[in-house]
Amino acid sequence: MPERNNGLCLYGIKACDTMKKARTWLDQQGLSYTFHDYKSAGIDRAHLQAWCEEHGWQTVLNRAGTTFRKLGEAQKADLDQAKAIELMLAQPSMIKRPVLDLGDKTLIGFKPDTYAAELAVKN
């Protein structure tokens, strides 16, 4: 199947199992994308701000992950968007992954059905 370049950018962490599933799915559909590893390359405030504005910081911040759970109670207390962004800037592992930038919007997390619907992929 020929690759279709849709200007997609996949943000996440290379070793994450969910990331591997998303990358495999995109590859199987013949979709090309740029991969941005925000653990090694970092992430800027503008991206986090935009994702939080689109989805809400509660969706973007991965509170189920080990990195967040290891925080002290004081760091977890009274969270709001500004504090959540500071935490994610300091430790990008706290960003829910993957984030797939479609150009006009983003998808957070990986659900094959959602990816297929948003990318109009026929299985």
From TrEMBL:
Record Pfam families: ArsC
Gene3D superfamilies according to UniProt: Glutaredoxin
InterPro entries for the chain: Arsenate_reductase-like, Thioredoxin-like_sf, Tscrpt_reg_Spx/MgsR
Domain of life, source organism: Bacteria
Family listed: Belongs to the ArsC family.
Protein name, UniProt field: ArsC family reductase
The species this protein was found in: Stutzerimonas stutzeri (Pseudomonas stutzeri)
